[in-house]
What we know:
CATH superfamily of the domain at 92-322: Mog1/PsbP, alpha/beta/alpha sandwich
Low-confidence stretches: none
CATH class of the domain at 92-322: Alpha Beta
Strand order of the largest sheet: 5-4-3-16-15-14-13-12
CATH topology of the domain at 92-322: Protein Transport Mog1p, Chain A
Largest sheet: 8 strands, antiparallel
Number of helices: 8
Radius of gyration: 36 Å
Amino acid sequence: xxxxxxxxxxxxxxxxxxxxxxxxxxxxxxxxxxxxxxxxxxxxxxxxxxxxxxxxxxxxxxxxxxxxxxxxxxxxxxxxxxxxxxxxxxxxxxxxxxxxxxxxxxxxxxxxxxxxxxxxxxxxxxxxxxxxxxxxxxxxxxxxxxxxxxxxxxxxxxxxxxxxxxxxxxxxxxxxxxxxxxxxxxxxxxxxxxxxxxxxxxxxxxxxxxxxxxxxxxxxxxxxxxxxxxxxxxxxxxxxxxxxxxxxxxxxxxxxxxxxxxxxxxxxxxxxxxxxxxxxxxxxxxxxxxxxxxxxxxxxxxxxxxxxxxxxxxxxxxxxxxxxxxxxxxxxxxxxxxxxxxxxxxxxxxxxxxxxxxxxxxxxxxxxxxxxxxxxxxxxxxxxxxxxxxxxxxxxxxxxxxxxxxxxxxxxxxxxxxxxxxxxxxxxxxxxxxxxxxxxxxxxxxxxxxxxxxxxxxxxxxxxxxxxxxxxxxxxxxxxxxxxxxxxxx
Length: 490
């Protein structure tokens, strides 16, 4: 769960063994909203943002009073129902990996293999009226013999939102260390005692030596993975950032055609050449005045701080040479990459199978992530009918909920309801009606039917009598006219 930057509130989500969310309507241990996040929220000094205390006061104690110390749990859940997936909007992902291959937030893919420091993302944060900045640094790739080749890789990423702490994640310079290095405001941050840090305006979690997750108050997140001295970087943005982004990850607006933007505002066509893409990427080089990076070594000072941010002397390989099918590099590349074009590109350019394998790993992770970020279709909670039972606590598209009634009760409505693709439940609301009530209802309906039938028969009989009387009157009138005609003739 994460604290709301505006209200300091949070949401506790609970799941069963199958990974399905449990709602309070189905279980006492279901997901509940919290007025105060357990870890608090900046500025931490006033309710409901005080770590621990606010959550205990506003959430835990109220639960105890209503559910554990009295029989009023229904009242508690009436005011604190679970938040399901119906209003959830998944974030958009921008990613980069390998000899840098990039995916924009709108899914446009391209390769930019420049050497330098670049703007991956500048984004206006609507909630705080501040800017989220994410910058990346690339270095040369080595071949299998340790020699530099004309290819690059991301080795560091630095980020800040508004006036939050600056976080930098980079490949460790220590050849003996198989771990990513995390810096806080240009100082190395140790995770020896705990895996997470709740800092000023930013939360950092290091789940493993090669996995770092950074979350900002706006809801934006950055995931960094390391593999073979290469970084895979993923930036996740909520929908509030729509039309607020620029940089190598493009404009997040659902339109991939405007993602290849040069800093001056002009756009490249969707089929731009590798040379055009290289020029476009170079326009997003940062400056020392806006850099978030730490330059704490002679190598970094000479190659980045006192050097152009986009190396004009570096010439990348735009199109790898095609080895013959009999060449061992070609056959091993085909076997390794299994049709992954980015993996093949990096392996053929660098001649390093570790680089190709890392690219394949990052690419597969990206594809899985994008698949998991598909919009979820949910129909919402379905109540168990009074005097009945409900089978099924899964409320996403395709799920079916079955209903039965207790003895001496008859089911009215739908016995089975399925969550449809439009987010609506099939069938009608289910009720369990007592047998005697059914008898009363049936008797009442039959009685009303009989009364209606009698009324109709009386009405028809009355009409019949009226027709007979009208016919008799007509016959009498006809006889009178006949006698008058005879008198006239005489």
